[in-house]
Each structure stands twice: as structure tokens, then as C-alpha cells.
Model the fold of this input.
Amino acid sequence: MNLVPAGKEEEQDANYDLRLVRWTRAARGMRRAREVKRRFAGKAHERGRFAPVIVMVVGAVEGEAGAKFAADEISRQVSQVGGENVEIAQLLQRVLAGERDPDALCHGLSQSAPLVETVLQTLADLSTLNSLLSDPETAE
Done:
């Protein structure tokens, strides 16, 4: 049973196509903005501050029970405290649950996007973790 009046199907298809094009352009623009932000020189130090979190997430994803417990515990504590870090805790739980789409994870983020992208990049290529930990600019 078709609930769309005759002649309106083409109009709906055109509206859907237009929304899809707009969404695709917006997603591409957000991706470019995150890339520019990631390349900013000061971001290397910021990523270095999160190296322990990144190591913990990678360990948890790789199946280390201690890292998984620590990740869950930190997420729980951060969620209870509240504030802007709740977003990071929720994102880490999504990554631990297996989500790997950077566009979906970074949608609507401003400050946390570089951390999420660094975690995803590290999960995809573990050698990036070694370079992050050995970079003298990011070491504390």
C-alpha cells in the first residue's frame, strides 16, 4: 500500500537526494575541519597528554583485562563527576564497544574530536602509539 499521493514520489525522491547531498557536503566539511585542527602544531602536545588514555583504550580493545577494567572504571568515575569529560567517557565506551566510524564518533564534537581520531588511528596502526609515546614534544 502506497501512502504517497500520485506524482509526489518524484518530489520526495528529489528532496531526499538534496538532503543526502547536503549531509555529504557537511560531513566532508567537518572531516576537513578536523584534519586542519589535527595538523595544528599545538595539537601534538595535547595528544601527548592523553597518551595514557590511548594506551589504556588500545589495551582494552586488544583484550587486556586490566586495561578493560581500568577503562570502564575511569568512564564510570568521569560520568559521575559530570562536565565536559562525560562526552569523552561516552565516546571511549563506544570505541570499546567496537564503533570505528570517525564521522559517527566525531559528529557534533569540537574539543574531543582530535582525541577520538588519535585513538582510532592508533587502533588501526599500533606504530602510531610508539611515535606518540617517544615524541619528546608530547612527553610530560
In short: The helical segments are 9-39, 43-49, 51-61, 65-81, 85-96, 102-106, 113-124, 127-134. The radius of gyration is 19 Å. Residues 9-134 form one domain. Residues 77 and 95 are 17 Å apart (CA to CA).
